[in-house]
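In this supplementary section we document a worked example of the pipeline. Step one takes a protein sequence of length 693 as its only input; no multiple sequence alignment statistics are reported here. Step two produces a three-dimensional model, which step three serialises into structure tokens for compact storage. The input and output of this example are shown verbatim.
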Amino acid sequence: MATETVAKPRTSMRVGVQKFGTFLSGMIMPNIGAFIAWGLITALFIEKGWIPVPQLGGYGETNGVKNVGLVGPMITYLLPLLIAYTGGRMVYDVRGGVVGAIGTMGVIVGAGIPMFIGAMIMGPLGGWTMKKIDSLWEGKIRPGFEMLVNNFSAGIWGALLAMLGFYGISPLVTAFSTGAGNVVQFLVNNGLLPLTSIFIEPAKVLFLNNAINHGVLTPLGIQQSLDQGKSILFLLEANPGPGLGILLAYMFFGRGIAKASAPGAAIIHFFGGIHEIYFPYVLMRPLLILASIAGGMTGIATLAITNAGLVAPAAPGSIIAVLAQTSRDSYVGVILSVVLATTVSFLVASVILKTTKHSDEVDLSDATSKMEAMKGKKSSVASTLTGAGAGAAGGVGTAVMAGPIRNIVFACDAGMGSSAMGASVLRNKIKAAGFPDVKVTNASIASLKDDYDVVITHQDLTERAKPVTSSAAHFSVDNFMNSPRYDEIVELVKESNTEGTPQRTSDAGAPAAHGAHAADVPAGTAAGTAAATGTAAAAGGAAAGPAVGRSEILSPDSVILNGTATTRDAAIDEAGRLLLARDAVDEGYITAMHEREESVSTYMGSYLAIPHGTNAAKDHIKRSAVSVIRYPDGIDWNGKEVKFVVGVAGINNEHLHILSSIAKVFTDKAQVAQLEAATTVDEVLALFGKVNS
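The serialised model returned by step three reads:
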């Protein structure tokens, strides 16, 4: 039975930092194109650029008037305002973005220097405060006055925020920027900057790099680049050398699947700039973090010695992006820093791989892959052997969708690195399987919405994706190149999207819901029966008890052909009352059914909903029972039409046969039509009975 693991405080802190970094990257990443444009204009047209143009570079005079150029206005106004607008929009749509940008203008003018940190504060602050203000008179504005109130409230509050930014926020952010800049300069002057790798490299592997890179290094690097024409800070985290060295070491001294996959991973890492691809190789051998640190320190030291740097952020961290943003006088230093970082990282990693014994390349995942290769098909225990249950590699290897899969998203921290690569790999696999119409996209976790069928994340990020995509099936991966989870998803697509294919059920025999997770088991249901929270065993019961006859679980008295409810909550009450009438539950269970519905919808698709109690409600179940109610005219269920409501209360897996039958019926359009046309209770009971005959 899968159980939910309680996160340790340290993990919670890491997740908190990840969320903060994700929010920061959510403001920066959509505007990377603007940063690249500014970097190219700077590298080309400033006085020391490749093609100096005074009118564009912003130096010298034309007809006695000082040239403003593009470089200064873009870095001072355009980029901070774009960041502020994006941050405000993340909090409160376009309205929040506009107010956040207005407030940021006050910070920019008050400081007189590029205000990226100020923009990352004022943007979300403007959106959040505007949202709170709007809530004060929501529903109270007289018809016809909405536009007047909305426009003037945004204008007045934006003006006040601009003054707050000018007089209040600007001095604070300026002081912080000055202090942080002095710290960086102290590290540079005293040769201590390479020591930052001790913190940066482990943070990257733990997906904390966005908080460091976008929260500190990029803003300070922009300011340094404006003052000096380049900045070393852009390469503290983006240097591809340390990761490349580790992957090269695996190519020469690794074993098994790790060695076989390392060359492809190295190409994607170095040229594609997706650094996340080497993280699993470090996580397999934690000592390899020393190689990453050593390579990072070497690269930074080389940059410091050669006084090299980039003119703008390199995103993604591809060697192509790095060279494109390299300052004109820094090519030797930058290339040397990448080469030396790779060399040192390779040497240290090689020593570690050669001198330490570890089962990583021949672990259960590798053994399972070899077993399946010899067997010629997927193994029913593959999910367990590769940790696909409630453990670290989480996921739903035995999940089944209640309907066809149309929309799959691969989500990562920033939405443009590992997720793009993973989506590409999976998209090709699904197309090769003959399902080109299945949409596979990538996105950042911060931008996820609950309209996907399947969500795929790195195992360290899954818990952050689940709350905002509760109705999707979640798969966790620990290897972006060759995860066995991809093949499981392809099989799931085949089974869900092929008409006439019997639906596979979970190991417990229950139908998996649209949105099964690996560690949230509702009482009164079983693996995958409840929409959004299926597991491999029924909640409310430990070991399987004595067999209970089907007629005792679903009796004629519990089948209603014409329900009287007209709302979701009334339908839950009606289904619960039938269970109560059979003395299967007490009043407390009906309350728990409503609590479950408020947290996670039990809508399954195909006009079916399966309300049931929460995990804490198992003490309110006296015996297993199922109720079935038909609503010919349909009722609204959180925006979905429901014509059949199945109330569930179960212990010891006794009700799984009935639920399995119900699931099979509702995946067959013809049988659903028969249910809709049934005129007697016996027809319904016979239909549920014949699918298992």
